[in-house]
Write a structure and sequence with these properties.
heterodimer; A: 195 residues; alpha/beta; Rossmann fold; six-stranded parallel sheet; 37% helix; 15% strand; globular; B: 641 residues; mainly alpha; Na+/H+ antiporter like fold; 3 domains; 28 helices; 70% helix; elongated
């Protein structure tokens, strides 16, 4: 069983519909730790040593957040800036994260079709996520396809429940190593494996 | 010993009270019945420990009634009276009026003369404020429709006691005997040798003085005395004021009870009201207790044993008559189904004021000894059955009523009680209060500095003056409904005292505390109060941050450096706390001095290394690596990604 660390960033969790439900659902799951950045560091004063320790202790890293301006909420960028130090995460002596798996779990307001060359946003999710992918690669980590919940503005409570159980299934499968390397890299979104 | 006799009597009274009241309370009955029972036991009917001096004790105890009326007056804010006028004056006056007529009529049928019949009607029309208030509070019914109406009716009755005390001597003078007894409680005629007109003028002047003084002048006196910070002087002042008014009223030939009641109403809007109330309450309680004991001692048990069935019959008749009148009124005033029964059952038993009126009538020779004795017995018994009536209503009647309606009735509890209590509203508390108010939270504020109270009142803050360390003050501030108590007071030991009290009696209320220094914080930690803020730390760090900017830091660097320092301080605090817990006694002896604290803090800081937090923004290592790469490329070797 692998250990999963969810690095979670949502600045207004009390107003959230999807992420609050998702994070609540994993609270008692074995092998999964939730690291709520805004709750832990309301002043953005990130405890770097503790965060690095958490990364070392886990095998799979999840960056989970709503997709703000085609990227992450501010504190996650701060986390990248401070925690992924040269000599720890990358560079000649930085091998602490080598070989770990990492993926983005995001929710977007728009539907799948707006994220395409001909759609309103012109680029695909995977194109927008290039900075995350390349950061992972610089840290010698394996970047998995993202898990995306589309259409967050119009999603119904019933659909949220469906999404929640799929999300849990996805995490369990990763944790228990049920999906092989090739299978994982064969899909565009991890969602395809939970259907 | 000079006062041996006095002390012996006092001992008997106090022993009786201390033994009987808790006993009766354990049985689920009110304290009034406890005092009465105590009086019966030590009185001539039973042990005979007290007897001939009882009249003197009674007169002394009547001062308790005066204090009670003062406190009732304090509860009656004129604005509140106005808001509730329909219930108070409509329902209240109808209840008294109709009951007096019906009971008076029955008394006439029993061959009483008209003046005595009226007096009997008046005496039995009243209901027991003490029993009702206690029952309502215990059962949480004060917000309930029936409960509140019942309370408002007793309020009207309490007000009516004052004119009743004036009417009884008049009724007595109908007999032509006109030997009107002067008691401390009341005199309608007077021995002042003044002309009628002059006398009237005199009366008006004294009442005007009470109103004017209470409204405009007393505040400054109270403030002056409160500022000395000596409670006993405040107590002395309050008692002095009441005794002074009682004497003045006595001199001009009016009821002292009326005077102090008036003074109470005038002071009801005063911000020292709570303090006055808590100061007077113990005296009132003890003296009223004494009063009831005296009443109990004068109850004639032999009389009851002579004709028990007749007396019980009278009591049942009385209760039934009152119940019917009340029930009809409740229907007329459209109390909800089920509530009308509760309302009538609450108000049917007789009042403790009936004892006052009966003994007063007896002194005025309106009733002879056996009649008064009989009436006292009836009142006592009707009060004694009141808990039984309520149990009957609760267990037997309500279930039937609600089943009939096929649904349970709930009253919307319109609780105006605030979720936050701020204790201490100086410069520190003010900031907290403003922040919470700005975010739409309602706060109740308690402060013990009269100067602050005065100023903040001007700016429309809702707050009252009181000493938070007194349990009554916290109760009155609505601790039962509060979620948070913020101890923002400046007093070191008092804050801990309040924390202790709250942890013991209201463990579910969250406490947030202002700590004077780290050892104060430790004292709070020890009491399991973990949300603690050191009072000067944040603002001092803020000024330090500005100093760093002046020394050439960028503003963000200065901000980060200060943040680092603050988080580091948290660690220092925890380390020191561990030390402190091990050897508390040494710390207590030494560390109240600032210099000692300083060395402890600096020592702890020395042992703790600040991690270079913003290391990632420090490009030194990456630059070195890049340099290396460049040089290695120049020297032709292997390419790197």
């Amino acid at each position: 069983m692998k250990k999963i660390l969810i690095i979670f960033a949502h600045p207004a969790i009390n107003k959230s519909r999807i992420h609050r439900r998702l994070t609540d659902s994993v609270k008692n799951m074995p092998g999964i730790s939730l690291n709520n950045l805004y709750e832990k560091y309301p002043d953005f004063y990130i405890d770097i040593i503790q965060e690095q320790q958490l990364l070392i202790e886990h095998d799979i890293i999840v960056w989970q957040h709503p997709f703000y301006w085609f990227s992450a909420p501010a504190i996650l960028k701060e986390w990248f800036d401070l925690v992924l130090q040269h000599g720890f995460a990358y560079g000649e002596k930085g091998h602490s994260l080598e070989g770990k798996q990492v993926l983005s779990v995001i929710s977007t307001g728009g539907n799948n079709d707006v994220y395409s060359k001909k759609g309103r946003n012109h680029y695909t999710i995977n194109e927008f996520l290039v900075p995350f992918k390349q950061s992972a690669s610089l840290c010698r980590m394996e970047y998995l396809p993202p898990y995306v919940i589309f259409g967050s503005h119009t999603i119904t409570p019933a659909e949220i429940e469906v999404q929640t159980s799929k999300y849990k299934k996805m995490l369990t499968s990763l944790r228990d190593n049920q999906w092989g390397c090739l299978l994982l890299q064969s899909v565009e979104y991890l969602n395809e494996l939970t259907n | 010993m000079y006062n041996q006799d006095f002390f012996f009597q006092a001992m008997i009274y106090l022993t009786a009270a201390v033994v009987m009241v808790p006993l009766v309370k354990k049985l689920g009955l009110g304290s009034v019945l406890g005092y009465l029972a105590a009086g019966i036991i030590i009185g001539p009917s039973a042990l005979g420990l007290v007897g001939f001096e009882n009249g003197r004790v009674m007169q002394f105890a009547e001062f308790g009634v005066i204090l009670m009326l003062f406190v009732i007056g304090l509860e009656l804010q004129p604005s509140l009276l106005w808001k509730m006028r329909r219930t108070i004056f409509g329902l209240g006056s109808l209840q008294v009026f109709i009951t007096v007529i019906v009971i008076g009529g029955i008394a006439l049928l029993l061959n009483f003369k008209i003046n005595r019949a009226v007096a009997i009607g008046l005496i039995f029309a009243l209901s027991s404020t003490a029993i009702i208030l206690q029952t309502l509070t215990e059962k949480g019914l004060l917000q309930n429709n029936a409960g509140r109406s019942a309370f408002l009716v007793t309020l009207f009755q309490d007000i009516m006691v004052v004119p009743m005390l004036a009417i009884i001597p008049l009724l007595a003078s109908f007999d032509g005997k006109s030997t009107i007894a002067g008691t401390t409680l009341n005199r309608i005629t007077t021995n002042i040798e003044l002309d009628g007109w002059l006398h009237l003028l005199f009366i008006i002047a004294v009442i005007a003085l009470i109103i004017f003084g209470g409204r405009f002048i007393s505040r400054y006196f109270f403030r002056l005395i409160a500022e000395t910070g000596m409670h006993e002087v405040f107590t002395a002042m309050a008692l002095l004021m009441i005794i002074g008014i009682a004497l003045a009223m006595h001199e001009i030939g009016l009821s002292p009870a009326l005077g102090t009641f008036l003074a109470g109403v005038v002071l009801a809007d005063n911000e020292y009201r709570h303090e006055l109330e808590t100061t007077i309450n113990p005296f009132k309680g003890l003296l009223i207790g004494l009063f009831f004991i005296s009443v109990g001692a004068s109850i004639n048990i032999a009389l009851f044993l002579q004709k028990p069935l007749m007396i019980l019959g009278f009591v049942l008749l009385l209760t039934l008559v009152k119940f019917i009148v009340l029930f009809i009124l409740a229907r007329y005033f459209r109390l909800r189904k089920g509530h009308d029964y509760l309302f009538a059952f609450l108000l049917a038993p007789s009042s403790e004021f009936a004892f006052v009126l009966i003994s007063f009538s007896k002194q005025n020779q309106l009733f002879d000894e056996p009649t008064a004795g009989l009436m006292l017995l009836m009142v006592t018994l009707s009060m004694a059955i009141s808990p039984l009536l309520l149990i009957f209503n609760e267990k037997a009647l309500s279930p039937i009523m609600t089943r009939k309606q096929n649904k349970t009735e709930f009253d919307l509890v319109e609780s105006s009680d605030n979720p936050v209590i701020i204790a201490g509203f100086g410069r520190f508390g003010l900031v907290i209060g403003r922040l919470l108010l700005a975010n739409n939270y309602k706060v109740t504020i308690i402060d013990s500095n009269p100067a602050n109270v005065e100023i903040l009142r001007k700016f429309g803050f809702k707050l009252f003056y009181g000493d938070v360390t007194r349990p009554q003050v916290i109760e009155q501030a609505g601790i039962k409904h509060a979620k948070l108590v913020i101890l923002s007071m400046a007093e070191y030991d008092e804050a801990l005292q309040v924390a202790d009290y709250l942890k013991k009696n209201y463990p579910y209320v969250k406490i947030l505390a202002r700590a004077k220094d780290i050892y104060h914080a430790f004292e709070f930690f020890k009491r399991n109060v973990n949300i603690v803020q050191q009072e000067v730390f944040d603002s001092a760090a803020g000024l330090g941050e500005k100093a760093l900017v002046q020394l050439g830091f960028s503003r963000y660097e200065a901000y980060r450096a200060t943040r680092t320092f603050k988080h580091h301080e948290k660690q220092v605090l925890l380390d020191l706390y561990a030390l402190w817990k091990e050897d508390e006694s040494r710390f207590i002896q030494e560390t109240r001095r600032f210099s000692e604290q300083l060395s402890e803090i600096l020592q702890a800081e020395k042992d703790y290394l600040i991690h270079e937090t913003d290391y990632a923004w420090n490009a030194n290592s990456i630059r070195e690596e890049a340099e290396l790469e460049k040089t290695s490329k120049k020297t032709k070797t292997k390419p790197k990604k």
